[in-house]
């Protein structure tokens, strides 16, 4: 197969990190990436070159292009942490060679050759050959969200309480998590901002759905906390509302921050609760979880994710699949729509 | 020995907890306790009755009388968590009987018969018979501060980094902690609010002393953090300044809140650090530490504290010893003076 020398890709405008405070909402894409031409990369010995079919846009991608993610940007390189595609070239190692010709889900990790491009680079060991029943849009979102969902559900299970709290609960990630949790008898308390999300989330597995904009939110929150006694608070939002939820939680509550949709200052409303109620604030980062977990655990989780997509227990709600050439213009508007996922196709 | 039927004591004005936000500064004592008469209590089988010589005033007492501590107030009962005195009566159990006639340091714990009184009740098992070399003012402050200091120093040692950060560093507690830390080669970074505290804290064991009111505080803080890489932040203050210090700390920093001098809102200035730098916020409460630690550990720590006071490695800086009858009028003014401890004597 002959590869072209150059390709189209969404290239990072800036290097390193940003010092600007901002949330995970993509108000404008052209400030962060530019459509351009770049040479098609060559895979290293343990890597594969993937012809991208569909690439996902995750909240972590938005944070990354803004310079607010835990690894530095490299100006002029393609963005995009995951996608689905076909392996068209591979490094010398057998594990890489074995993948040539296969349809795979892939993470780009720290390769600096992201998935928002015609071709991307991935470590062979991290690629997942896809079974025939898996749709491209499911495969393109097979890694970041499912791994995060199952890893965080693992934290809930270790803590032992059946009930737990989720903000930004209408996200794909939370829907996957709630589905898995309900199967095992857990009771997600979903926090959302709109009434029309309530039936949707009840269907997705929530035991309670609370709307933060309802006038009786504080009362309802207090009642649900009292009845359910959740310990784990999985928070993608931060800001004053997250602080309010944490303050309403019972003894030994753990506020686990994994995203930051709200750029407002995040308060600890009652620091005395840290002392006398043994509450804690901590963070979750998939990269760190992967570093700290044994490789078998990752493989097991990825297998479980694929099975769930094939047998229909999980599915990806697609808001839009946007062509690469139109991404800068169209993605922010599509991302602003609630409840679904946006993809890019080269 | 004949005991009087009634005694003088500082009695709590209110029940339960307060819903008012407030710090650990005692702006006025009469709002919280009133000098009055009450019957002399009778010790239970495992308890002793102590004729109080000197009672301590700790920040935890101030939080307690304000209704901001982790256990509820009982209206009309005496306040005061620790003191020194002579055992004048005891319950039937041998461990209690053995203490009769002895001079002891005692915690009142949850007996509801505090030390700011002519007589107090303590659990025999928690009392410490004092050697002759120990002064009354050292004995009266033998339990809460030394145990907290050594328990928190234990957290620093477990974490492994030599440097650690302390706010309200001119407190008795911090001076004890820094003295113990310096002996073992640890490097306390002391945060204070006045230049005249700098030589004092250098003498007490601080490797660095930073004044938060200095115009170059942020710069100095950044430099010291870079050079020393502290992981543990022992914070008695909270509020925006504590948030600023935590944000300046390196990866895997743990903000351990054990007091709340500043009633201002406490922010987490960079929630992204919880995700990408694995930072955490938690609390320390001596009561919880005692509950979770094996009894041998408590005995060992108390023995070590007494040795340190006898051999002069530790000493208590006394600001004032105020008669019980004058406490309501005089204690707030004496507590407002920096660097020393205030005691009450019946």
Automatic annotation (TrEMBL), chains A, B:
It comes from the Bacteria. The keyword Oxidoreductase applies. InterPro entries: ADH-like_C (IPR013149), ADH-like_N (IPR013154), ER (IPR020843), GroES-like_sf (IPR011032), NAD(P)-bd_dom_sf (IPR036291). The keyword NADP applies. Gene3D superfamilies: Medium-chain alcohol dehydrogenases, catalytic domain, NAD(P)-binding Rossmann-like Domain. It holds the Pfam family ADH_N. Keywords: NADP, Oxidoreductase. Residues 30-344 form the Enoyl reductase (ER) domain. GO terms for molecular function: NADPH binding; oxidoreductase activity, acting on NAD(P)H. This is Zinc-binding dehydrogenase.
């Amino acid at each position: 197969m002959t590869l072209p020398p150059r390709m189209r890709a969404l290239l990072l405008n800036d290097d390193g990190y940003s010092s600007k405070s901002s949330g995970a909402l993509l108000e404008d894409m052209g400030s962060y990436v530019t459509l351009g031409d770049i040479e098609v990369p060559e895979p290293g010995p343990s890597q594969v070159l993937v012809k991208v079919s569909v690439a996902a846009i995750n909240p972590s991608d938005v944070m990354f292009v803004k310079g607010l993610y835990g690894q530095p940007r490299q100006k002029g390189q393609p963005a995009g942490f995951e996608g689905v595609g076909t392996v068209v070239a591979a490094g010398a190692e057998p594990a890489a060679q074995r993948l040539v010709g296969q349809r795979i889900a892939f993470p780009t990790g720290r390769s600096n050759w992201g998935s928002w491009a015609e071709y991307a680079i991935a470590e062979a060991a991290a690629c997942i050959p896809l079974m025939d029943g898996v749709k491209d849009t499911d495969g393109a979102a097979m890694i970041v969200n499912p791994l995060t969902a199952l890893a965080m559900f693992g934290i809930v299970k270790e803590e032992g309480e059946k009930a737990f709290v989720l903000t930004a609960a209408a996200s794909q990630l939370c829907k996957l998590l709630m589905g898995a949790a309900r199967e095992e008898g857990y009771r997600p308390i979903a926090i959302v901002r709109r009434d029309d999300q309530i039936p949707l989330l009840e269907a997705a597995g929530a035991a309670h759905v609370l709307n933060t904009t309802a006038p009786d939110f504080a009362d309802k929150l207090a009642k649900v906390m009292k009845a359910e006694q959740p310990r784990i608070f999985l928070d993608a939002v931060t800001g004053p509302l997250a602080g309010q939820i944490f303050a309403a939680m019972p003894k030994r509550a753990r506020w686990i921050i994994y995203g930051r949709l709200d750029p407002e200052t995040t308060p600890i409303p009652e620091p005395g609760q840290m002392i006398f109620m043994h509450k804690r604030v901590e963070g979750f980062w998939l990269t760190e979880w992967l570093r700290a977990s044994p490789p078998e655990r990752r493989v097991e989780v990825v297998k479980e994710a694929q099975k769930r997509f094939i047998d229909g227990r999980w599915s990806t709600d697609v808001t839009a699949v946007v062509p690469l050439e139109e991404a800068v213009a169209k993605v922010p508007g599509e991302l602003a729509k609630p409840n679904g996922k946006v993809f890019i196709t080269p």
